[in-house]
């Protein structure tokens, strides 16, 4: 997908704290789920990478379909040895959840 992302950081006025939990699809007790998504990062040999949870059903800016290679989001895949297998399976996309309270 070559669309622009409408926001990079989500903000809620009803919560004082937000967390992103990689590898999960649900929030801890007393936390509210904002969305579930896919964990993303820069390509492995790019500098200054950070992990971001991109919504499974993302919005995009209408009319922004251009391939300018600005900020690129690559899905993070599981690797057995780095993560315990099971419960993870090698090569699968890693889910994430964003929670607030």
Task: Tell me what you see in this structure.
The protein is mainly β and 101 residues long. It has a domain at 13-42 and 94-101. 0% of the residues lie in helices and 27% in strands. It is built from no helices and five strands. The protein has strands spanning 18-22, 32-41, 52-55, 74-75, 95-100. Strands 1, 2, 3, 4 and 5 form a five-stranded antiparallel β-sheet that branches. It starts with 17 loop residues before the first strand and ends with a strand. The model has no long low-confidence stretch (mean pLDDT 81).
Number of helices: 0
Radius of gyration: 15 Å
* Helix coverage percent: under 10%
Number of strands: 5
- The N- and C-terminal alpha carbons lie at a distance of 32 Å
Q: By helix and strand content, what is the structural category?
A: mainly beta
Silhouette: flat
Order of helices and strands: EEEEE
Provide the β-strand percentage band.
25-35%
Q: Kindly report the average pLDDT value.
A: 81
Poorly predicted ranges: none
Mind describing the biggest β-sheet?
5 strands, antiparallel
Keywords:
mainly beta
Please outline the helices and strands.
Layout: E1 18-22, E2 32-41, E3 52-55, E4 74-75, E5 95-100
Antiparallel strand pairs: 1-5, 2-3, 2-4, 2-5
